[in-house]
Amino acid sequence: MDSQAFSFELPAHLIAQYPPAHREEARLCCLRPGQKPIHHLISSLPEYVRPGDLWVFNNTKVVKARLLGKKRKTGGHIELLIIEPSTPGLLMKEALLKPLGELPWRCLGKASKGFKPGEALDIGGATALVCAQEKEGLLLIRFEGEGTLSSLLENAGHMPLPPYVRRIPNPEDTLRYQTVFAQTEGSVAAPTAGLHFTPALMQALQNTGAGLAFIRLDIGLGTFLPIRTPRIEEHLMHEENCSLPQETAQALNQTRAQGGRVVAVGTTVVRCLESFADASGHIEAGNRRTNIFIYPGYRFRVVQAMLTNFHLPGSTLLMLVAAFAGTAQTLAAYGEAIERGYRFYSFGDAMLLEKTAPQQAPRKTQEQLKEQAR
After folding, report:
1. How far apart are CA 79 and CA 17, in angstroms?
2. Mind listing the pLDDT tens digit for each residue in 87-101?
3. What is the value of pTM for the model shown?
4. Residues in the chain where the model's pLDDT stays below 50
5. What is the pLDDT of residues 176-206, one digit of tens each?
6. How many CB atoms lie within 10 A of CB 113?
7. What DSSP letter does each residue of 112-174 carry, written as one string?
8. DSSP at 238
9. Structure confidence by residue, pLDDT tens digits, 274-332
């Protein structure tokens, strides 16, 4: 499948630079299979609850993973975005508490003249040494100094707003680029569909007959790395850590057994739930790393509805939405949203989607793609 099939023109003024004044004031485009979009506000979500629904949220917490500093030798300004510890399978929350220097970190970097192995960077009273350059523009960085990386980020880190937010960060971003139900640090980007919720709105969902449950997928490159291959089947997703508690597994299996609807709040929730489901849709609790790539043709096992923001052209997230709602209907809804002035991306508006039938043959597994790459 040609990745260009998911391109579209988006006027720059529709890229949201700030969140709405209140979380529940974002606009909501409701899309059902074969029907025209219906337009509401996020505050209208309780109207779409069906008794017996289970609404599932990603309670990962965004780390202040953006660091600013200078090259020690030249004084040139640099920027680092912490992505993950270099040790496979080590959780971010655990790695952050290890002493500086104990392990290298994979980072994305920005500098006017790039980076060279062996360069020393001065960041917030600590030293960062460039150990190596890896694929996808990643740098292997070793931090040296007193304390932990957690303490360094707390003192010198900034919220990692996406690059399309082209403004000076402000103190409000610490609150508004974080969900109200965030618990465990682990992500370098927000689960943006969850940003729309307040405690009052979540209570309103419950009052209308929905149950609430939580998973955690720590957002990294697997979620936001762009596709650089002409055919989407050739794209390899990076692994991300995810966790599904026992109480959530029980709620999911009970909901499905009773004919209830599983509603995923965000694409990361969809990917987590589908990663934990067996062929019949049964869920077992646990912790794992997932590189699931969902695009048109994927057969959903668990999720019947989802809430999600409007995504970048050609992104894996847009492809997931197209797999869920149908490519033609998704792109038509995006076109209507542009005409109506919807706000796009992380601080923007949202869609509530119901599943439609798959359009293509089932996707290749990541294992098959890895074997093909060899």
Report:
1. 20
2. 988 899 999 999 999
3. 0.92
4. 356-370, 372-374
5. 999 999 999 999 999 999 999 999 999 999 9
6. 9
7. TT---TT-EEEETTEEEEEEEE-GGGEEEEEEESSSBHHHHHHHH-B----TT--S---TTHH
8. P
9. 999 999 999 999 999 999 999 999 999 999 999 999 999 999 999 999 999 999 999 99
Question: Which tokens hold the place of 263?
Answer: 């509603």
Helices 316-325, 327-339: axis angle to 10 degrees equals 110
Strands 77-85 and 66-71: antiparallel
Structure tokens at 317: 């997230």
Q: Which amino acid is at 176?
A: R
Name the token pair of 250.
């029980």
Pairwise CA distance, residues 69 & 297, whole Å = 45
Calculate the CA 143 to chain-centre distance: 26
d(CA 211, CA 177): 25
Closest by CA position to 225, among listed 315, 319, 321: 315
